[in-house]
Design a protein that fits this description.
This protein has about 350 residues and is an all-alpha fold. It has a domain of about 120 residues. Strand 1 and strand 2 form a beta hairpin. Helix 1 packs across helix 6 and helix 4 runs antiparallel to helix 5. The longest helix is centred in the last third of the chain and has 34 residues. The protein is elongated and about 85 Å long. The N terminus is likely disordered.
Length: about 350
Protein backbone atom coordinates (compact mmCIF):
# COMPACT_ATOMS: atom_id res chain seq x y z
CA UNK A 1 0.00 0.00 0.00
CA UNK A 2 1.40 3.41 -0.95
CA UNK A 3 1.48 6.05 1.73
CA UNK A 4 1.07 9.73 0.80
CA UNK A 5 1.11 13.01 2.71
CA UNK A 6 -1.17 15.70 1.33
CA UNK A 7 -0.92 19.32 2.52
CA UNK A 8 -4.01 21.38 3.32
CA UNK A 9 -4.90 23.64 0.41
CA UNK A 10 -5.68 26.52 2.79
CA UNK A 11 -2.00 26.92 3.68
CA UNK A 12 -0.60 27.53 0.22
CA UNK A 13 1.92 30.15 1.26
CA UNK A 14 3.24 28.01 4.11
CA UNK A 15 4.13 24.95 2.02
CA UNK A 16 7.36 23.36 3.24
CA UNK A 17 9.48 21.99 0.42
CA UNK A 18 10.31 18.78 2.28
CA UNK A 19 6.58 17.99 2.70
CA UNK A 20 5.58 18.27 -0.95
CA UNK A 21 3.54 15.44 -2.36
CA UNK A 22 5.02 12.78 -4.60
CA UNK A 23 2.75 10.80 -6.90
CA UNK A 24 4.94 7.71 -6.62
CA UNK A 25 6.53 6.64 -3.34
CA UNK A 26 9.01 3.83 -2.66
CA UNK A 27 8.00 0.90 -0.45
CA UNK A 28 8.91 0.19 3.14
CA UNK A 29 12.33 -1.27 2.24
CA UNK A 30 13.52 1.18 -0.41
CA UNK A 31 11.81 4.17 1.25
CA UNK A 32 14.35 4.65 4.09
CA UNK A 33 17.23 4.15 1.63
CA UNK A 34 15.75 6.76 -0.71
CA UNK A 35 15.29 9.27 2.11
CA UNK A 36 18.82 8.75 3.43
CA UNK A 37 20.44 8.95 0.00
CA UNK A 38 18.17 11.88 -0.88
CA UNK A 39 19.40 13.87 2.12
CA UNK A 40 23.00 13.01 1.32
CA UNK A 41 22.58 13.91 -2.34
CA UNK A 42 20.85 17.18 -1.41
CA UNK A 43 23.80 18.13 0.81
CA UNK A 44 26.24 17.27 -1.98
CA UNK A 45 24.19 19.22 -4.52
CA UNK A 46 24.14 22.31 -2.28
CA UNK A 47 27.93 22.25 -1.98
CA UNK A 48 28.38 22.04 -5.74
CA UNK A 49 25.55 24.45 -6.55
CA UNK A 50 27.27 27.13 -4.46
CA UNK A 51 30.27 26.95 -6.80
CA UNK A 52 28.69 26.49 -10.25
CA UNK A 53 25.61 28.08 -11.78
CA UNK A 54 24.82 25.47 -14.42
CA UNK A 55 25.10 21.67 -14.37
CA UNK A 56 25.23 21.23 -10.59
CA UNK A 57 22.70 18.39 -10.70
CA UNK A 58 24.81 16.36 -13.14
CA UNK A 59 28.09 17.11 -11.37
CA UNK A 60 26.51 16.06 -8.07
CA UNK A 61 25.41 12.77 -9.66
CA UNK A 62 28.97 12.09 -10.85
CA UNK A 63 30.51 12.89 -7.45
CA UNK A 64 27.77 10.93 -5.67
CA UNK A 65 28.41 7.89 -7.88
CA UNK A 66 32.16 8.01 -7.22
CA UNK A 67 31.50 8.16 -3.48
CA UNK A 68 29.15 5.15 -3.67
CA UNK A 69 31.66 3.14 -5.71
CA UNK A 70 34.43 4.07 -3.27
CA UNK A 71 32.35 2.86 -0.33
CA UNK A 72 31.78 -0.44 -2.18
CA UNK A 73 35.49 -0.98 -2.87
CA UNK A 74 35.81 -3.74 -0.20
CA UNK A 75 33.18 -5.77 -2.05
CA UNK A 76 34.95 -5.14 -5.36
CA UNK A 77 38.22 -6.30 -3.80
CA UNK A 78 36.63 -9.56 -2.64
CA UNK A 79 35.05 -10.03 -6.06
CA UNK A 80 38.30 -9.56 -7.95
CA UNK A 81 40.25 -11.62 -5.43
CA UNK A 82 37.86 -14.52 -5.93
CA UNK A 83 37.88 -14.12 -9.73
CA UNK A 84 41.70 -14.10 -9.85
CA UNK A 85 41.85 -17.24 -7.73
CA UNK A 86 39.34 -18.90 -10.02
CA UNK A 87 41.58 -18.13 -12.97
CA UNK A 88 44.62 -19.46 -11.16
CA UNK A 89 42.93 -22.70 -10.11
CA UNK A 90 40.91 -23.17 -13.29
CA UNK A 91 43.01 -26.14 -14.50
CA UNK A 92 42.37 -28.01 -11.23
CA UNK A 93 38.65 -27.19 -11.37
CA UNK A 94 38.50 -28.42 -14.97
CA UNK A 95 40.15 -31.70 -13.91
CA UNK A 96 37.36 -32.22 -11.37
CA UNK A 97 34.75 -31.59 -14.08
CA UNK A 98 36.58 -33.91 -16.52
CA UNK A 99 36.51 -36.68 -13.92
CA UNK A 100 32.71 -36.64 -14.02
CA UNK A 101 32.35 -35.66 -17.69
CA UNK A 102 30.78 -38.98 -18.73
CA UNK A 103 28.82 -39.49 -15.51
CA UNK A 104 25.48 -37.76 -15.87
CA UNK A 105 23.56 -39.57 -13.15
CA UNK A 106 22.35 -37.52 -10.19
CA UNK A 107 24.67 -39.17 -7.65
CA UNK A 108 27.77 -38.44 -9.71
CA UNK A 109 26.71 -34.86 -10.32
CA UNK A 110 26.19 -34.36 -6.59
CA UNK A 111 29.65 -35.80 -5.84
CA UNK A 112 31.17 -33.45 -8.42
CA UNK A 113 29.40 -30.47 -6.84
CA UNK A 114 30.58 -31.44 -3.35
CA UNK A 115 34.14 -31.98 -4.55
CA UNK A 116 34.08 -28.61 -6.33
CA UNK A 117 32.74 -26.90 -3.21
CA UNK A 118 35.43 -28.47 -1.04
CA UNK A 119 38.13 -27.39 -3.48
CA UNK A 120 36.81 -23.82 -3.62
CA UNK A 121 36.48 -23.60 0.16
CA UNK A 122 40.01 -24.97 0.67
CA UNK A 123 41.46 -22.37 -1.71
CA UNK A 124 39.35 -19.40 -0.57
CA UNK A 125 37.22 -19.13 -3.71
CA UNK A 126 33.77 -17.61 -3.16
CA UNK A 127 31.15 -18.06 -5.88
CA UNK A 128 29.03 -15.38 -4.20
CA UNK A 129 31.87 -12.85 -4.27
CA UNK A 130 31.03 -11.80 -7.82
CA UNK A 131 27.37 -11.23 -6.97
CA UNK A 132 27.75 -9.12 -3.82
CA UNK A 133 28.75 -5.83 -5.53
CA UNK A 134 25.73 -6.09 -7.85
CA UNK A 135 23.36 -7.03 -5.03
CA UNK A 136 24.62 -4.10 -2.94
CA UNK A 137 24.05 -1.67 -5.81
CA UNK A 138 20.50 -2.78 -6.68
CA UNK A 139 18.73 -1.06 -3.73
CA UNK A 140 20.87 2.05 -4.35
CA UNK A 141 19.91 2.05 -8.03
CA UNK A 142 16.23 1.59 -7.16
CA UNK A 143 16.37 4.37 -4.56
CA UNK A 144 18.07 6.74 -7.02
CA UNK A 145 15.20 6.14 -9.44
CA UNK A 146 12.79 7.72 -6.95
CA UNK A 147 15.20 10.54 -6.13
CA UNK A 148 15.56 11.64 -9.76
CA UNK A 149 11.93 10.95 -10.64
CA UNK A 150 10.81 13.25 -7.80
CA UNK A 151 13.81 15.56 -7.50
CA UNK A 152 11.63 18.30 -5.98
CA UNK A 153 11.00 15.99 -3.01
CA UNK A 154 14.69 15.49 -2.23
CA UNK A 155 16.56 18.55 -3.49
CA UNK A 156 15.64 21.74 -1.64
CA UNK A 157 16.63 24.12 -4.44
CA UNK A 158 14.47 22.24 -6.97
CA UNK A 159 11.54 22.00 -4.55
CA UNK A 160 11.63 25.69 -3.70
CA UNK A 161 11.83 26.58 -7.39
CA UNK A 162 8.71 24.50 -8.06
CA UNK A 163 6.83 26.18 -5.22
CA UNK A 164 7.78 29.61 -6.57
CA UNK A 165 6.57 28.63 -10.06
CA UNK A 166 3.32 27.25 -8.60
CA UNK A 167 2.63 30.46 -6.68
CA UNK A 168 3.17 32.56 -9.82
CA UNK A 169 0.80 30.29 -11.75
CA UNK A 170 -1.86 30.84 -9.06
CA UNK A 171 -1.66 34.58 -9.73
CA UNK A 172 -2.69 34.06 -13.37
CA UNK A 173 -6.43 34.69 -13.97
CA UNK A 174 -8.34 31.44 -13.59
CA UNK A 175 -9.76 31.36 -17.12
CA UNK A 176 -6.36 31.84 -18.74
CA UNK A 177 -4.72 29.46 -16.27
CA UNK A 178 -7.21 26.73 -17.17
CA UNK A 179 -6.77 27.34 -20.88
CA UNK A 180 -2.99 27.00 -20.64
CA UNK A 181 -2.64 24.17 -18.12
CA UNK A 182 -5.88 22.12 -18.20
CA UNK A 183 -4.91 19.94 -21.23
CA UNK A 184 -1.65 18.94 -19.57
CA UNK A 185 -3.36 18.49 -16.22
CA UNK A 186 -5.79 16.07 -17.87
CA UNK A 187 -2.88 14.08 -19.35
CA UNK A 188 -1.29 13.96 -15.91
CA UNK A 189 -4.50 12.75 -14.24
CA UNK A 190 -5.01 10.10 -16.92
CA UNK A 191 -1.47 8.85 -16.37
CA UNK A 192 -1.95 8.52 -12.60
CA UNK A 193 -5.70 7.96 -12.30
CA UNK A 194 -5.16 4.69 -10.38
CA UNK A 195 -2.85 6.27 -7.79
CA UNK A 196 -4.52 6.73 -4.39
CA UNK A 197 -3.85 10.45 -4.11
CA UNK A 198 -5.51 11.18 -7.46
CA UNK A 199 -8.47 8.88 -6.76
CA UNK A 200 -9.03 10.20 -3.24
CA UNK A 201 -8.21 13.90 -3.56
CA UNK A 202 -8.79 14.58 -7.24
CA UNK A 203 -6.76 17.25 -9.01
CA UNK A 204 -7.27 21.00 -8.78
CA UNK A 205 -5.30 23.76 -10.52
CA UNK A 206 -6.18 26.02 -7.60
CA UNK A 207 -4.03 23.99 -5.19
CA UNK A 208 -0.31 24.58 -5.01
CA UNK A 209 0.45 20.93 -4.23
CA UNK A 210 -1.32 19.75 -7.37
CA UNK A 211 0.43 22.38 -9.48
CA UNK A 212 3.81 21.30 -8.10
CA UNK A 213 3.10 17.71 -9.14
CA UNK A 214 2.10 18.97 -12.58
CA UNK A 215 5.30 21.01 -12.88
CA UNK A 216 7.29 17.83 -12.22
CA UNK A 217 5.33 16.14 -15.04
CA UNK A 218 5.69 18.88 -17.68
CA UNK A 219 8.38 18.67 -20.36
CA UNK A 220 10.27 21.50 -22.08
CA UNK A 221 8.03 21.41 -25.15
CA UNK A 222 4.97 21.60 -22.89
CA UNK A 223 6.27 24.81 -21.34
CA UNK A 224 6.82 26.34 -24.77
CA UNK A 225 3.17 25.77 -25.64
CA UNK A 226 2.01 27.03 -22.23
CA UNK A 227 4.00 30.27 -22.54
CA UNK A 228 2.58 30.89 -26.01
CA UNK A 229 -0.94 30.50 -24.61
CA UNK A 230 -0.24 32.76 -21.62
CA UNK A 231 1.40 35.53 -23.64
CA UNK A 232 2.44 38.48 -21.46
CA UNK A 233 0.72 36.87 -18.46
CA UNK A 234 3.56 34.34 -18.41
CA UNK A 235 6.38 36.90 -18.23
CA UNK A 236 6.83 36.37 -14.48
CA UNK A 237 7.43 32.66 -15.14
CA UNK A 238 10.37 33.23 -17.48
CA UNK A 239 13.16 33.76 -14.89
CA UNK A 240 11.86 30.90 -12.73
CA UNK A 241 11.75 28.54 -15.71
CA UNK A 242 15.23 29.64 -16.70
CA UNK A 243 16.41 28.76 -13.19
CA UNK A 244 14.61 25.42 -13.46
CA UNK A 245 16.33 24.67 -16.76
CA UNK A 246 19.79 25.67 -15.47
CA UNK A 247 19.35 23.55 -12.35
CA UNK A 248 17.97 20.41 -13.96
CA UNK A 249 20.02 20.14 -17.17
CA UNK A 250 23.49 18.76 -17.69
CA UNK A 251 25.12 19.17 -21.11
CA UNK A 252 21.71 20.37 -22.38
CA UNK A 253 19.99 17.15 -21.19
CA UNK A 254 17.23 17.32 -18.57
CA UNK A 255 18.18 14.86 -15.85
CA UNK A 256 14.83 14.57 -14.08
CA UNK A 257 12.79 13.40 -17.08
CA UNK A 258 13.16 10.62 -19.62
CA UNK A 259 15.70 11.55 -22.32
CA UNK A 260 14.38 13.10 -25.53
CA UNK A 261 15.72 10.72 -28.16
CA UNK A 262 15.61 13.24 -31.00
CA UNK A 263 18.41 15.36 -29.51
CA UNK A 264 21.42 14.97 -27.21
CA UNK A 265 19.26 12.83 -24.93
CA UNK A 266 19.87 9.84 -27.21
CA UNK A 267 23.40 9.76 -25.76
CA UNK A 268 22.01 8.65 -22.37
CA UNK A 269 20.73 5.18 -23.40
CA UNK A 270 23.70 4.75 -25.76
CA UNK A 271 26.15 5.52 -22.95
CA UNK A 272 24.24 3.32 -20.47
CA UNK A 273 24.15 0.37 -22.89
CA UNK A 274 27.73 0.86 -24.11
CA UNK A 275 29.20 1.11 -20.62
CA UNK A 276 27.21 -1.98 -19.57
CA UNK A 277 28.74 -3.88 -22.49
CA UNK A 278 32.27 -2.81 -21.57
CA UNK A 279 31.73 -3.68 -17.91
CA UNK A 280 30.30 -7.10 -18.84
CA UNK A 281 33.17 -7.73 -21.25
CA UNK A 282 35.74 -7.03 -18.54
CA UNK A 283 33.83 -9.19 -16.06
CA UNK A 284 33.81 -12.10 -18.51
CA UNK A 285 37.53 -11.67 -19.11
CA UNK A 286 38.29 -11.81 -15.39
CA UNK A 287 35.79 -14.57 -14.48
CA UNK A 288 36.66 -17.91 -16.10
CA UNK A 289 33.83 -20.16 -17.24
CA UNK A 290 33.76 -23.93 -17.75
CA UNK A 291 35.38 -24.73 -21.07
CA UNK A 292 33.43 -27.85 -22.10
CA UNK A 293 31.26 -27.42 -25.21
CA UNK A 294 27.57 -26.81 -24.69
CA UNK A 295 27.94 -25.78 -21.05
CA UNK A 296 24.67 -23.90 -20.24
CA UNK A 297 26.32 -21.51 -17.75
CA UNK A 298 28.91 -20.41 -20.30
CA UNK A 299 26.28 -20.04 -23.03
CA UNK A 300 24.05 -17.94 -20.76
CA UNK A 301 26.96 -15.69 -19.75
CA UNK A 302 27.88 -15.06 -23.38
CA UNK A 303 24.28 -14.26 -24.30
CA UNK A 304 23.97 -11.83 -21.37
CA UNK A 305 26.99 -9.96 -22.71
CA UNK A 306 24.70 -8.65 -25.46
CA UNK A 307 21.29 -8.87 -23.81
CA UNK A 308 22.13 -6.76 -20.73
CA UNK A 309 23.41 -3.70 -22.64
CA UNK A 310 20.30 -3.73 -24.85
CA UNK A 311 18.07 -4.04 -21.77
CA UNK A 312 19.79 -1.18 -19.94
CA UNK A 313 19.67 1.03 -23.02
CA UNK A 314 15.94 0.31 -23.36
CA UNK A 315 15.25 0.89 -19.63
CA UNK A 316 17.05 4.24 -19.56
CA UNK A 317 14.87 5.50 -22.40
CA UNK A 318 11.89 5.61 -20.04
CA UNK A 319 13.72 6.51 -16.80
CA UNK A 320 14.95 9.92 -15.66
CA UNK A 321 18.14 10.72 -17.56
CA UNK A 322 19.93 11.28 -14.24
CA UNK A 323 19.61 7.57 -13.56
CA UNK A 324 21.23 6.81 -16.91
CA UNK A 325 24.09 9.15 -16.02
CA UNK A 326 24.46 7.45 -12.63
CA UNK A 327 24.53 4.00 -14.24
CA UNK A 328 27.07 5.05 -16.89
CA UNK A 329 29.48 6.65 -14.42
CA UNK A 330 29.09 3.66 -12.10
CA UNK A 331 29.97 1.26 -14.94
CA UNK A 332 32.99 3.24 -16.09
CA UNK A 333 34.36 3.63 -12.58
CA UNK A 334 33.72 -0.08 -11.92
CA UNK A 335 35.55 -0.95 -15.13
CA UNK A 336 38.63 0.99 -14.02
CA UNK A 337 38.42 -0.63 -10.57
CA UNK A 338 38.25 -4.10 -12.13
CA UNK A 339 41.29 -3.53 -14.34
CA UNK A 340 43.39 -2.15 -11.49
CA UNK A 341 42.37 -4.88 -9.02
CA UNK A 342 42.92 -7.60 -11.63
CA UNK A 343 46.47 -6.41 -12.16
CA UNK A 344 47.12 -6.15 -8.42
CA UNK A 345 45.87 -9.64 -7.59
CA UNK A 346 47.38 -11.23 -10.70
CA UNK A 347 50.81 -9.93 -9.70
CA UNK A 348 50.25 -10.94 -6.09
CA UNK A 349 49.33 -14.56 -6.84
CA UNK A 350 51.93 -14.81 -9.59
CA UNK A 351 54.62 -14.02 -7.02
CA UNK A 352 53.19 -16.63 -4.66
CA UNK A 353 53.29 -19.24 -7.41
CA UNK A 354 56.91 -18.36 -8.19
CA UNK A 355 58.00 -18.88 -4.56
Amino acid sequence: MLNFQFLNAFFLDAVAVQELVSVRQPGTIIGPISRFLGRFYNMLFDLINNSVSVGALGLAIIVFTLIVKTVLIPLMVNQQKSSTKMQMFQPEMNRIRDKYKDKKDQMSQQRMALEMQDFQKKNGISMLGGCLPLLAQLPIFYAMFYIFQNAYMHIDVVGQNYVDIANVILQIPETLRMEAFAPFAQEFVNSYENVDIIKNEGFDLARVNDIVMLINYLKIDDWHQILITLGSAGDALQPLLEMKNNTETFLTISLISAPVLSGPGILVPIAAGGSTFLQSKITMATTPMPSEPGNPAAAMTKSMLYVMPIMMGFFTMSMPAGLGLYWTVSNLFGLVQSLILKKVFSNKYAKKEAV
